Amino acid sequence: MSPPAFTPVQGPLRRDGSCFAAIDLGSNNCRLLIATPSDRHFRILDSFSRIVRLGEGLAASGQISEAAITRACAALSICARKVAAHRVIGARYIATQACRIARNGAAALERIEAVSGLSFEIIDAAEEARLSVDACLDLARSDVDHLLVLDIGGGSTELAWVELRNQNKSAQRRRSGTIVKWMSLPIGVVTLAERYPETTPHHVWFQQMQEEILAALNDFDADRAIHTAFAQGRAQLIGTSGAATSLTAIALGLRRYERRRVDGRIMQISDLRQAIADLAALGPFGRMANPCIGQGRADLVLPGAAILSALMEAFAAVEICVADRGLREGLLLSMMYGSDPN
Fold first, then answer.
1. Alpha helices, DSSP H, located in the chain
2. Residue 340 predicted with pLDDT over 60
């Protein structure tokens, strides 16, 4: 079924049971959120997340595999049942890097629609960056005028340099901003993990992954305005990715993952480096057994950490605000309030 048309709405919690749905079909994960508008944000009614690895083997074959399509169909059939159980008045279902670059990306989505009844659109990297920024704007500190938002995905990594507005924000207004510079690196946790299978010594393997990321920045990190803003304390780094949230959970010593303790947490780079060392020491099986990582992410968390560490190094950042939010949240906010809620 095609997503119903929507008009951005304003106002308090809806009492008629109507809500909005957003699905992000990425190169690694399939994620659903169903929510209703509430107090300039939203209240979550239902959610779902499953690792489907749509981008598995894509770099080598150029195509989304049969196994990956089957996994995605199974996950999205669950999503479709959840959507059908609610009074959804607006929805967007998006696909990102894997479907953008695969020769059979459009055909794969047609098969997924035939099985699940959900109709997807492939968004470009620019919209992907914008949606991540929309999701993270309310994490901005009141004393900064710029954000650098890092969205580390399965098949790509988006960087967005954002000029903030409404610096004298009140409780009645969400902060807004304009992306003045952005880039998309065609490297994510799945592609990096496949390119660099885990080897020992870990520091050599980790350094190789970092060097690839730094080389791919293509002088984005040479922008003196960005460095000056960070040096003067006028800029804030925000990272949205499974790698950032998993590392934070490890650094906090959580026995199980707790979103409320991770989302918005300010982490020092020294703490993240210690968490990286701890995860490397665990080895693949130790990471599988860790409830904050699990089997599905055991081989991806350190490649993701390499991307995050390299980008923090590139911009000489000493801390990062960790965001457990991303494209789904950006989709919901844009449907409910428009892409610029101010």
1. 58-61, 66-84, 97-101, 105-116, 125-136, 189-195, 202-216, 224-231, 242-251, 259-262, 269-289, 301-314, 327-337
2. no
Sign of CA dihedral 42, 47, 50, 54: negative
Q: What is the CATH number of the domain that holds 40?
A: 3.30.420.40
Answer with the one of 63, 97, 123 that is the final residue of a domain: 123
What would the pLDDT profile of 28-58 be if each residue is shown by its tens digit?
999 999 999 987 789 999 999 999 999 999 9
Q: For residue 191, give the nearest of 56, 40, 11 by alpha carbon.
A: 56
- pTM across the whole model: 0.89
Name which residue leads in pLDDT, 62 or 295. Answer: 62
**Tokens in use for 10?**
């304003």
Same domain, 205 and 258: yes
DSSP string, 53-97: -TTTTHHHHSS--HHHHHHHHHHHHHHHHHHHTSEEEEEEEEE-H
pLDDT on residue 341: 41
User: Residue 158: which domain range?
Assistant: 140-327
Q: Please give the tally of structural domains in the chain.
A: 2
- The predicted structure's pLDDT at residue 10: 39
Percent of the chain with pLDDT over 70: 91
Phi, psi of 79 (to 5 degrees): -60, -45
Distance CA 323, CA 321 (A): 6
CATH number at residue 148: 3.30.420.150
**Half-sphere exposure (CA, 13 Å, Cβ side) for 262?**
26
Q: Structure tokens of 129?
A: 């960056």
Query: Which pLDDT value is given to residue 339?
Result: 62
Backbone angles phi, psi at 38, to 5 degrees: -160, 110
